[in-house]
Write the structure tokens for this entry.
Amino acid sequence: MRFDEAYSGKVFIMSRNDFENASAVIYGMPMDWTVSFRPGSRFGPGRIREASIGLEEYSPYMDKHLEEVTYFDAGDIPLPFGNAERSIAMIEEYIKKLVSAGKFPLGLGGEHLVTWPVIRAMHEKYSDIALIHIDAHADLRKEYEGEVLSHSTPVRKICELIGPENVYSFGIRSGMREEFQYAKDSGMHMSKFHVAEPLRKILPTLSGRKVYVTIDIDVLDPAFAPGTGTAEAGGITSGELLEAIQLIAGSDAEIVGADLVEVAPAYDHSEQTAIAASKFVREILLGWVK
């Protein structure tokens, strides 16, 4: 399947069939090859799409309707099972094509390592890019049990690529002591436990900057999102994450792309995780895609 071909499976609600005139492209990264606890996030993109059918097309948060934004659901990148290195290369190449076509890339994961190749491609286009990272985990390890390609390493890799001073993490409540020390010593911004309030203070400093946003669903407390591979007690509510998305939408930062990762449907028979994720995607489409 070409990256601009219409997806023949289930698509996100109100997705158009017109790639050329779409402002945003939704695409899936069905990879969970390096997870350290529970696999299954490779099924996240499809389930988020399926859950979206239950959404209202109007958002009272943004006071906008999905008919007001044009987006194309390109389906999932056909990643080779178990091959992390090749999968990363394929994701990076895919994003380069989307960015070169002038599209807003909106990725559905998949484990969090998938954000690393996306940022590599985005950084090639926008050398001064900043990252907003919303997550329970620091993801600042250099390796995990000897593996440098791990879902616990993407933010460290991104810090080394774009500079730690351009990385802003929110909601962090889990990680090694060394990860928190690295955040403190390197000059990156890390807000522990909370998202909306620290984000409100930081966003004015990103005015006019090109910013990529990555959201790990496990930033939510497991009471709101049990369907994830590495659930972490003590998280934020769905309401606080919605508030954060609205704050970003109302800021003067230029959001150039985003992803939402780590939805693992098998651990949530109620489907509340996928339902919440689909709502967050709706708000991102309405609030961040210009």
